[in-house]
Design goal:
Layout (H helix, E strand, L loop, with lengths): L2 H31 L8 E6 L2 H11 L6 H4 L4 E7 L2 H13 L4 E7 L12 E11 L2 E13 H17 L5 H23 L1 H20 L1
Parallel strand pairs: 2-5
Antiparallel strand pairs: 1-2, 3-4, 4-5
Helix pairs in contact: 5-6
Bound molecules: ligand 0O2.
Organism: Blautia hydrogenotrophica (strain DSM 10507 / JCM 14656 / S5a33) (Ruminococcus hydrogenotrophicus)
Pathway: Purine metabolism; ppGpp biosynthesis; ppGpp from GTP: step 1/2
Protein name: RelA/SpoT domain-containing protein
C-alpha cells in the first residue's frame, strides 16, 4: 500500500491520541486546581508504527480492508496511576463519559498474564472530526500503576532484546519481580490514605502560593 494512503489512515488515529491526551491531562489539572487528589498521575499515547501494524496483520492473518476493524490498538493511550484502587476509579470515569464508549475490557489484574504482566485494558470507540466528516475509531486504553508500568517497561525491553526467545532464568527473575510488584502495590495501598492526605495538603500549599 502506498505510503500516502497509510498516512491518511493513521492521521485520524494521531488526532484521536492527541485529543485524548489533552482530555486526560485536563482532568489531572482540574483535580489539582480544586485541591483534590488525582487518580491519574500521568498519561501517554502512541500510534502503532506501520511496520508493527504490518507485523500484526501478518501474524494474525488480517487483510488490509479489515485492519481498522480487527486491530484494536492502532491508537493506544496509557494511563498511569499511583495506587491500584485508582485504576477502577479511572475506568468508572471513562465509562461515565459521553465522548468515549467502552467496547470491551481485558482485566490482567484479576487475570495476570503468564509473563507476570498486569494492567487493565479497555477498548473504546472515540469519534474524531476529519475533512470527510466524523470518523469513529477504536482506541486501546491501558490503565496501570507506576509499579506495574515499571515492570512492563523493563519486560518489554527484554522481550525486544531476546526477540521472543527469553532465556528461562530471565523469565524466572521477571516472574519473581512481578510478585515483588504485587507486594509493593499492596504495601502502597495500605498507606494510601496517609499519602493522599499528604499530597492534598502540599497541593493546597502550592495553589495558595500561586494565588498570591
Ligand atoms: P506496544 O509496543 O505497547 O504497542 P497482541 O497485540 O496480539 O499481543 P492483543 O490481544 O491484541 O494481543 O492485545 P492485549 O494482550 O490486550 O494487549 C497488547 C498490549 O498490551 C501490548 O501491545 C503491550 O502494550 C501490552 N502487553 C500485553 N502483554 C504484555 C506482556 O506480557 N508484557 C508487556 N510488557 N506488555 C504487554 P504491543 O503491541 O505488544 O506493544
Amino acid at each position: 500500500m502506498e505510503i500516502q494512503l497509510w498516512r491518511s489512515i493513521l492521521s485520524s488515529y494521531e488526532l484521536a491520541v492527541q485529543e485524548l491526551i489533552i482530555k486526560f491531562e485536563h482532568l489531572i489539572k482540574e483535580y489539582r486546581t480544586n485541591d483534590r487528589y488525582s487518580p491519574i498521575e500521568e498519561v501517554t499515547g502512541r500510534v502503532k508504527s506501520i511496520s508493527s501494524l504490518l507485523e500484526k496483520m501478518q501474524r494474525k492473518n488480517i487483510p488490509m480492508f479489515r485492519m481498522e476493524e480487527e486491530i484494536e490498538d492502532i491508537a493506544g493511550i496509557r494511563i498511569i496511576c499511583q495506587f491500584e484502587e485508582d485504576i477502577a476509579e479511572v475506568a468508572r470515569m471513562i465509562a461515565a463519559r459521553k465522548d468515549m464508549e467502552i467496547k470491551s475490557e481485558k482485566n490482567y489484574l484479576t487475570h495476570m498474564k503468564e509473563s507476570g504482566y498486569r494492567s487493565y485494558h479497555l477498548i473504546i470507540y472515540y469519534t474524531v472530526e476529519t475533512i470527510y466528516g466524523p470518523k469513529r475509531l477504536q482506541v486501546e486504553i491501558q490503565i496501570r500503576t507506576l509499579a506495574m508500568n515499571f515492570w512492563a517497561t523493563i519486560e518489554h525491553s527484554l522481550q525486544y532484546k531476546y526477540k521472543g526467545n527469553m532465556p528461562p532464568h530471565v523469565t524466572e527473575r521477571l516472574s519473581k519481580a512481578a510478585d515483588a510488584i504485587i507486594a509493593l502495590d499492596q504495601e502502597m495501598s495500605s498507606v494510601r490514605n496517609e499519602i493522599m492526605d499528604a499530597q492534598n495538603s502540599s497541593q493546597m500549599q502550592s495553589n495558595l502560593v500561586s494565588d498570591i
